[in-house]
Every structure is written in C-alpha cells, then in structure tokens.
Specification:
Elements lengths: L2 H27 L1 E7 L3 H6 L1 H18 L1 E6 L10 H16 L4 E2 L23 H4 L2 H4 L5 E4 L6 E7 L2 E8 L5 H13 L5 E5 L3 E3 L12 E3 L1 H11 L5 E6 L6 E6 L5 E6 L13 E7 L4 E7 L1 H4 L13 E2 L6 E4 L2 H5 L8 E2 L2 E5 L31 E3 L9 E2 L9
Parallel strand pairs: 1-2, 2-3, 6-7, 7-10, 10-12
Antiparallel strand pairs: 1-13, 4-5, 5-6, 8-9, 11-12, 13-14, 14-15, 14-16, 17-18, 19-20
Length: 403
C-alpha cells in the first residue's frame, strides 16, 4: 500500500477507534447496579461471616460494577429480641457505611416483636428502630426520611444520571403508613419508584420443583399494597421482596396501563441458610433492560477443592438469571423525562452530539456497516453522518494505490 492510501486508511481506523471508544464509554455511563440482599436471618443466628461476605463483596466491587445502592429485604435477624444478633448484623452493614456506600433496610417478621400494624407496637420493646434508626442514615446523601416510629423510610439515589426513589415499607404497614408513603410520592412526583418490602409476592411452587412455573401470587400484605397503593401510583415500576420462596417474578398493569415488575428473592430455605446468595440488578437505561444475576460471594471465596455439591457460585436458572425488557423513557413518560448520564461524568446528561450547534459531522460506529472482522467496503457509505450535513464517512482508494 502506498503512503497516501495508508494515511487515509489510518485516519479512518483512528476515527472508528475513537468513535467506538466513545460509544463504549457512553454505554457504560448508561448502566448502574442495584445490589439486593435477601433474608439474612440464618446467618445472623449461625454464622454472620456469610452475611459479611455479601457486604464486603459489595464494598470491594462497587466501583467496578457501579453499585450505586443496596437494599436489604428484611429478616435481618432470626430472633428479634437477641441483642447479640443485632450487634452482629449492625457490624456487617457497617461495612457498607465504612466504604462510603448507600443502603436501606426494611423490617421483616423476624425483626419485630409484635406483628401488629407498625403504629400499634410498643417501641420500647422493639430493637429494629434502635439499631437502624433514622439517625444512622440522616447524614447520607441519599437519605430522604423515616416515619416517626422508624419502621418505614425512603431514599433517593442517582443511577446513570437519573434519580430514583427507594421506598421501604414495614412488614405490616398501617393505614397511617400508607398515607405517609403517598405523601412521599406526591412530594417527589417526578421520580421513578422502587418499592421494597419484606412481603409482597409468595409462590405456589415447592422449592426444587423445576416443573412448577408461574407460581407467583400475592401475600395478604402484597394484595393490600397492590390494591390500595401500588396500582394507583404510576411512579412505582418495580417491587422487590423476600420472606417467601422459591424466587418468583411477575408483571402486572397498573391503573394507567403501565407495567409494574414484581420480584421475590429469598434463599433462606436452601443449604446453609442461603449459602450467601444475593442478587444484582443491572439497569441499562439506553438499551432498556434490567438484568438480574444471582451469586454467592461466600462460595466464591471458598477454594474449589473445598466446595461441595451445594456450593454453587452462580444460579443460572430462569428464576435467578433473567432480563426484564423495559423502555425506561416510555415507562416514565407519564411523570418525568428520562435523564441519562454521558461518558465518565455522571453529572452530565446526555444530549445527542449530532444536534449540538456547529457540529460539522457526527458518526456513530454501531457495527452495522462495519462488522467486526470484516474488510471495510471499497464502495458506498461506511458510516452515515447523522448530523444531517451529508458528510458520510466512506472508503476512498487513491489512484495508483497498491497493496
């Protein structure tokens, strides 16, 4: 190949490389991860180190995986009146705090002494509000607020440039609590909401019965939450709960005709009280997906020659590994405009560079016209100029050029 042809080709390859790098950067900026820790009651009673392996993994991998928030689904302890368990789980959750990471908790039935509506309990006897009070969180940037009794809360985190509200409700939320929750949503009417509670979905399937599918049904609390609260609030697009097993999910339409994705995640009935399994939900705001993976940091840390048949690093069945298709812009359109971060600056929102005033040409290298491993076409458009100025990128062989 002679020198002029080489220069043109090198320039083309350089531009394509830069474009691909920018596209990859933008794609990464549109993704974030929500970590989900289900019922840890067995670990609290038997081996808090299993629980600690989960929060330590989050702390160690938060930057690489862009874990922006963690939710605990309740039943933090096995015995609600055993101080030693509360001390242990408090120390485990402090691993996240010491790493500067944000999280929320909700009480499960094992975390409360009296399973009556949250506004009827004797607070002097309850330990959950003692170990996870509002004062523990109020200096965090994501802190929103708590009910006066300490059993319900909300937080606001930012993922990929978009703000989300996490609403945490008690195991037996009172009418007073639901009125409070409605007030929270009304005061933040433009924020998409993830509802976390200990009990929403349960399953009609038996653990281990692979022939049983579509077993998701509401618990009594879940039915009440759906009828009295969730279905009327278009902001709520996702619910997550523990308490029951096996894992389930279903999608329902709310009163506005929008999909609401409901998810049950819990492993306490399995080997070693769950064997450290937890879930990651990766949100991709550009590609319109929520990808779920389920894995165990506890098993990952075990030498392979010490793992038994029940020591599974990652659960890959349909209950535990799946993708939810959700067009975030369309789903949120009724109450807000989707905002997506661009590049490595999480504070910048995405404006299409092709529309910026003064742009002469803008090419997107999506691989459609230049498949990986294939030669660049000798004729025709290689990459279209999406600025509308007609400066399409093409391959031109100069006269007298030779290989």
């Amino acid at each position: 190949m002679n020198k002029p042809a080489f220069i043109v080709l090198a320039l083309l390859l350089m531009v394509m490389s830069l474009g691909a790098g920018a596209a990859a950067q933008d794609a990464a900026a549109s993704r974030f991860t929500l970590a989900v820790i289900p019922d840890t009651q067995r670990y609290a009673a038997w081996n808090p180190d299993v629980f600690a392996s989960q929060t330590q993994w989050i702390a160690d991998n938060a930057a690489e995986r862009n874990v922006v928030f963690t939710v605990h689904l309740g039943d933090i302890t096995e015995n609600d009146n055993v101080v030693e368990e509360w001390e242990a789980v408090s120390d485990v959750m402090a691993i996240l705090e010491n790493a500067g990471l944000q999280y929320s908790t909700v009480p499960g039935n094992h975390d409360i002494i009296s399973e009556v509506p949250d506004n009827e309990r004797d607070l002097s006897a309850e330990l959950y509000p003692v170990y996870f009070p509002a004062s523990r969180f109020e200096n965090n940037p994501t802190f929103g607020g708590f009910t006066e009794n300490g059993f319900n809360n909300y937080f606001i985190f930012e993922g990929a440039g978009q703000e989300f509200l996490v609403l945490g409700l008690d195991y037996v939320p009172s009418d007073e609590t639901l009125a409070w929750a409605q007030g929270v949503l009304d005061a933040h009417a433009t924020l998409p909401v993830i509802l976390v509670a200990h009990s929403i979905l349960t399953s009609t399937c038996e653990l281990g019965d692979e022939t049983c599918t579509d077993g998701a049904v509401f618990t009594s609390t879940g039915e009440r939450l759906w009828e009295d609260f969730i279905r009327a609030n278009a902001q709520i697009f996702l619910t997550i709960n523990g308490h029951s097993w096996p894992p389930e999910r279903m999608t329902l339409q709310n009163d506005a005709g929008n999909d609401v994705h409901l998810m049950l995640t819990n492993y306490q009935a399995e080997f070693f009280g769950g064997n450290g399994h937890m879930r990651l939900l990766e949100f991709d705001l550009v590609n319109s997906t929520i990808s779920a993976t389920t894995f165990s940091p506890w098993v990952m840390a075990k030498p392979e020659n010490r793992r038994g048949p029940s020591d599974v690093v990652e659960k890959t069945d349909d209950r535990n590994q799946f993708v939810i298709d959700i067009n975030f812009a369309e789903r949120f359109a009724g109450f807000t405009e989707l905002v997506v971060a661009q590049g490595d600056n999480g504070g910048d929102t995405m404006t299409d560079p092709a529309l910026i005033e003064g742009t002469v040409a803008y090419w997107r290298f999506d691989g459609e016209n230049t498949p990986e491993g294939e030669p660049i076409p000798a004729e025709g458009v290689v990459v279209t100029d999406v600025s509308g100025n007609g400066n399409d990128l093409v391959r031109v062989d100069l006269p007298n050029a030779s290989p």
